[in-house]
Amino acid sequence: MESLVGILNYVIFFAITAGIFAMLSLGLNIQWGYTGLFNIGIAGFYAIGAYTSALISGPPPSALDWRTVGGFDLPFIFGLVGAIGVSGVAAFLIGIPTLRLKEDYLAIATIGIAEVIRLVLKNESWLTNSVWGIKHIPSPFHDPVDSMISTFLESHPHLPRWLLDIVSNGYNWLFLFLVLSVLIFLYFVSERMIRSPWGRVLRAIREDESVVAASGKDVFWFKMQSLVLGAMIMGMAGSFYAHYAKFIDASSFEPLYGTFIIWVMLIAGGSGNSKGAILGAFVVWGIWVGADFVTGRFGLAGFREGALRIIIIGVLLEAILILRPQGILGEEKFISKVLRNDRNGR
Amino acid sequence: MHILGEVMSILDVSDIHSGYGETKIIRGVSITVEHGETVVVIGPNGAGKSTLLKTIFGLLRPAQGTVSLHGEDITGMSPEKIVRMGICYVPQVDNVFPSLTVLENLEMGAFIRKDDLGTSLREVYKRFPVLEDKKRIKAGKLSGGEQQMVAMGRALMLNPRVLLLDEPTAGLSPLLVQEMFQKIQEIKENGVSTLIVEQNAAEALKYADRGYVLAMGKNRYHDTGEKLLSNPEVGKLYLGA
Amino acid sequence: MSILSEIPQLMVYGVVEGSIITLGAIGLSLTYSILKFANFAHGDMMALGAFFCLTSLAVLRFLGLEDSPFDPLSFGFNMVAALIIAMALAAATAMILDRFLYRRFRRAGPIILLISSIGSAFILRNVIQFIWGPQPQYYFKAIQISQKVPGLGVRIKPDEFFIVGIAGVLVIFLHFFLTRTKTGKAMRATADNMDLAKVSGIDTERIILWTWAIGTALAAAGGVLAGIENKFITPQLGWHMLLSIFAAVILGGIGNPYGAMAGGMIIALSGEISTAFLSTAYKPAVAFIIMVAVLIVRPTGLFGNK
Predict the structure, then answer these.
(1) From residue A339, how far is each of A332, C179, C304 by CA, in Å?
(2) Which of A88, A214, A321, B227 is the most buried (most CB within 10 A)?
(3) Nearest chain C residue to B158, by CA
């Protein structure tokens, strides 16, 4: 029974992390899947969101920290909103010089930007505490829920062991609920938006920019909105990550975790499809975790395990590109209201 | 060449259906080019003239029909192979290598040859003297007319038996158009069979032995150059003002 | 006052670093212009070359070929042999990668190829780590002391002369190859217009293989030289240089090897000189800022022409 509980707890952990990745994937879907913006700088927005949230809602610098600012210890919601806002602003500033570049140049530029952001976060220790990171970031509602759990556990000591174990992990259930609610909310917002006239313009831009420009629309401004919106979602994910992991430093946002794996997730699930973005996140994260178990069995040296896992994900990406580039679900089909009414005989 | 008493056309295109994707632009076109002839194909835009040339040269695979070179079936062969069989193709646009010099462009035309190019180069220079003057200049810096000459010269470097020209006078001034057709005449005198697709229908037919008129992806008229020119229907519809 | 006096020495570092970046950049510029996509795995090919060289050196030493250095360099003939072997192995790897992977995407457009090359980059880097491990590894045990150059007031290591020299020699070889040989001209023609090249009878698939071979061999050489300069190599070697290499290529104009060389020098020199004013941690940021500026103001590059 106890091992089942252990598995259950692991599943919760898995779902939370997959859910955060799914947010990132949805954000990328808006930028790339719908609008065709080749953003390889995901990790940058993710990191900005995480650090902003940590600085707003996290603890003040301790005597041992290099960090000298932030730590207002405000409730989580402030950190979340701050993360969204600052990521959005960053995207806006980044978009100004780069959105006019053509696709592969945009890709190169966004990699460079993500690098610069990473360098800044790593070096400006007054802001970020550099490699020592920001610790003890509080999770939302943690204390009240924890005390509720403690009270419950103390007053019911006679309950079976496995039930007590589940309850003591109760906070993570709450966090998972939070993540999934936000995810579902983002999904519906995303679906709504893409079917609106605004969304149609985005999709048209992905198809053929010049046609859209010729019809008089300000392509640059639409791209900017898409970039900012996607970035805000990524920043949101960063905030969730920071308050879940409780500790962040520059290495949490390496290009591997912050960017590459998200691209694999979106492509695997189906770019241009918000269900696909979410599905891809869960599937690829599952493969990643599964690969962890499998390579663990080989008894390899630590670095070999990690390397093998990445090789597996890389090969997975290539396989998808060769065999099924549209991903599991393929691109979303959008039927206009007119056609739909037609089919229903109206 | 005679087989069983029949004279074989050097180029025989039979019932070709071809195009990009599902919808075929050409639906059942047949033409022949006899040895040493200049054959012109004219017709309105979208009639499939360029598609026809590309299909013959292997840039497009026909859905139906055959292309034969001197009796040998070359349908759907890749351009690299067709070039080796003695057919050269001059596209309508982007027909030079802009960052290579004129000389290098000509050398590229002769890429598959392993022998000394001196004689062929001299011949091309004789035909297009301006190319010799500008042989070290990058082709991208030449005028439109000069680029057409480079394009033609490149194709001639292999001494082809058959030359396919896609609108060789497009965008040229009337004087250059005349010059171009005169050069094509000279090439013909060297025994090269030529298939030309042209917008400048009236001019082209003057120099043609025979002509085909294509419309909507099918053969419409077929006659000698002279007769087509004097055909009032053809004149009204296709020869323009 | 003291900042200015540092500059000549920084320029020396810049020229050495620039030579290494140049070798990466001209290879990338070649493949970019002919295959029409930005190969994100190029940096990792440099790393692959460096590690192939490491192993070749070990094998040669094992076979009895001693280190006997060419005075005053750190290394001898076995290093030169290992370098050549590494270049050949890296070239072969790239051709295999093309044959089994990139060839499927010939008509698919630059984005799929780019994504695929990102995947290849991660695979390559981690295969290197899997085989050789993440720790720094060294070509030679001895450390070389930099010597004063009389009259110029700067110091340079004899190895660094070699680096700049080899880079120069390889660039000149490339120049001759592209302008004097049939294959080289065919490569330039294919970069100009692949369809027309096919129409002229050029076997463009063979040209593509040549491109991978040469571009990657140059990258491998760059990786080995980086190992000589930095004293040690790690699997991350290429990824760290990728941004600078891209910047150099864009600066010089895609498809222009001489532009890539100029770009490499400018990027390296700016990076080095910037350390007089900024923290060294931001060196890559300098390359990036220059690159973005060029992309916005003159996307065809300082020396590009289209």
Answers:
(1) 16, 59, 49
(2) A88
(3) C200
Nearest to B111 among C188, C201, C305 (CB): C201
Contact C295, C287 (CB under 8 A): no
Give me A111's structure tokens: 């990699």
Most A-contacting residue of C51, C115, C124 (CB-CB within 10 A), to test interface: C115
- For residue B193 the two structure tokens come to 């069979």
Contact C189 B108 (CB under 8 A): yes
Å between B45 CA and nearest CA of chain C: 23
Q: CA-to-CA distance for C288 and A113, rounded, in angstroms?
A: 8
Burial-class residue B174 by CB neighbours within 10 Å (0-12, 13-18, 19+): exposed
Residue type, A229: L
A105, A108, A125, A309, best to mutate vs chain C, most C CBs in 10 Å: A108
Q: Which of A119, A306, A321 sits opposite C116 (nearest CB)?
A: A321
Report the first-to-last Cα separation within chain C, whole angstroms: 43
CA-derived radius of gyration, chain B = 17
| Measured distance CA(C90)–CA(C99) in Å, rounded | 14
Which residues share a beta bridge with A199?
none
Q: Which residue in chain A has the smallest CA separation from C279?
A: A123
How far does A72 lie from chain C, in Å, by closest CA? 29
Q: How many CB atoms lie within 10 A of CB A230?
A: 29
> Among C122, C134, C243, whose Cβ lies nearest the Cβ of A260?
C122
Decide: C244 and C52 in contact? Cβ < 8 Å.
no
Instruction: Please report which confidence band the pLDDT of residue B15 belongs to, taking 50, 70 and 90 as the band edges.
Output: confident
Q: Does residue A110 contact residue A39 with C-beta atoms inside 8 Å? A: yes
Q: Minimal CA–CA distance to A281: which of A266, A260, A259? A: A266
User: Do C and B make contact, counting contact as 3+ CB pairs within 8 angstroms?
Assistant: yes
Flag if A104 and C114 touch (Cβ within 8 Å).
Answer: yes
Chain C CB contacts of A101 below 8 Å:
295-296, 299
3-class DSSP state for residue B205?
helix
Encode burial over A190-213: b for 16+ CB neighbours within 10 A, e otherwise.
beebbbeeebebbbbbbeebeebe
CA distance B80 to chain C (A): 4
Q: Taking the mean position of all CA atoms in its chain, how far away is CA C69?
A: 25
For residue C182, the chain B residues in CB contact (below 8 A) are 107, 111
Q: Are C126 and A307 in contact (CB under 8 A)?
A: yes
Report the complex ipTM: 0.88
Mutating which of A105, A120, A298 best tests the C interface, going by the most C Cβ atoms within 10 A? A105
Please provide residue A267's backbone torsions phi and psi, each rounded to the nearest 5 degrees: -65, -40
- Residues C101, A318: C-beta atoms closer than 8 Å: yes
Q: Answer with the residue of higher pLDDT: C69 or B84.
A: B84
**Is the Cα torsion angle A190, A194, A197, A201 positive or negative in sign?**
positive
Please calculate the CA angle C277-C278-C282 and round it to the nearest 5 degrees.
150
Q: Which tens digits make up the pLDDT trace of B103-162? A: 999 999 999 888 888 888 998 998 888 888 898 999 999 988 899 999 999 999 998 989
- State the pLDDT at residue C19: 94
- In 3D space, the residue among A124, A175, A141, A123 whose CA is nearest the CA of residue A9 turns out to be A175
| pLDDT-flagged residues of chain A (< 50) | 346
Alpha-carbon distance B66 to nearest alpha carbon in chain C (angstroms): 20
Give the number of other Cβ atoms within 10 Å of residue A247's Cβ: 13
Mapped onto helix, strand or coil, the DSSP state of residue C234 is coil
List CB contacts (< 8 A) between A288 and chain C: none
Rg of chain A over CA atoms, in angstroms? 22
Q: Could you give phi then psi for residue A136, rounded to 5 degrees?
A: 55, 40
Q: Is residue A325 a contact partner of residue A268, using CB atoms and an 8 Å limit?
A: no
Rounded to the nearest 10 degrees, how much is the dihedral formed by the CA atoms of B175, B181, B186, B187?
130
